[in-house]
Write a structure and sequence with these properties.
This protein has 255 residues and is an alpha/beta fold. The chain has twelve helices and eight strands. The chain is elongated.
């Protein structure tokens, strides 16, 4: 490829980290722990109702976000639920802490891919002919809560190599909206052709990046069922099985 890659934008889940639990069980456990948190804070709410309505509202939020490509945060969902349950005013002040409790089981279930840290370290060590870092490295993740992503990046030891770490919860818009990619390009002051998007979802990561002219790599470490529907219409520049294959791929592009 004629134009050198100068920036690499990573998705997070399915790209640099993998989910090790059962999704529904983890969500249920988180909601139950959140309800218990409100009880410990002496907030009078029916716990069973809170869990049931919260999980339903979260599903509606996921569906609305997918349809509009505008993020629906976990905090927003909880606020709606507390209003439905006519919760006392004190409950609303506890929303940020309650959300953190809710995300506890999910946070524990995410683990870095075995070669994620070494890959980032290796890419960060690459230098240009004049001794400058060859790549800027960042993250753009669809997520309903910015704080959990920031905590995960810290806990999984990925922070030293990634700047910025941006989420749809913080930006308000989700991939594949072109605006979220354009924000990153503006931040880095790089042309689209000089930036590579690495992600696991064809219709989200790959399509979104292609819409603004970025190059793309699909990673298949965690198989995404929805990709089957798009394989013939959304074609990445390259496909890798695991993140550790990326440095060799980039080297092959530069020769």
């Amino acid at each position: 490829m004629s134009n050198p890659i100068r920036g690499i934008l990573f998705d997070l889940g399915g790209t640099l980290m993998t989910f090790t639990g059962d999704w529904k069980e983890v969500q249920q456990r988180g909601a139950v722990q959140m309800a218990a948190f409100f009880r410990r804070r002496r907030i009078a709410i029916d716990e069973d109702q809170l869990v049931q309505i919260f999980l339903a509202e979260r599903e509606l939020g996921f569906e609305r976000a997918a349809a509009t490509q505008m993020e629906v945060s976990c905090q927003e969902c909880l606020r709606i639920v507390l209003e439905k349950l006519a919760a006392p005013p004190a409950a609303f002040a506890l929303i940020p802490e309650a959300v953190r409790v809710c995300f506890g089981p999910e946070e524990a279930a995410w683990q870095a891919f075995p070669d994620a840290r070494d890959t980032l370290r290796q890419l960060a060590a690459v230098r240009t002919s004049d001794g400058r870092p060859a790549y800027r490295l960042g993250v753009l993740s669809n997520a309903t809560d910015d704080a959990i992503i920031q905590r995960l990046v810290n806990r999984l030891g990925l922070r030293p190599w990634l700047s910025p770490v941006w989420t749809s919860a913080a930006l308000g818009l989700r991939k594949p909206r072109r605006e979220v990619f354009e924000v990153l390009l503006t931040r880095w002051r790089l042309p689209p052709a000089a930036v590579l998007m690495v992600g696991d979802r064809l219709e989200i990561d790959i399509l979104g990046a292609q819409q603004v002219g970025m190059r793309t790599v699909l990673i298949m470490a965690d198989e995404v069922p929805s990709n089957q529907s798009y394989r013939d219409v959304i074609i990445p520049d390259a496909t890798i099985q695991r993140i550790g294959e990326l440095p060799a791929l980039l080297e092959s592009w530069s020769t």
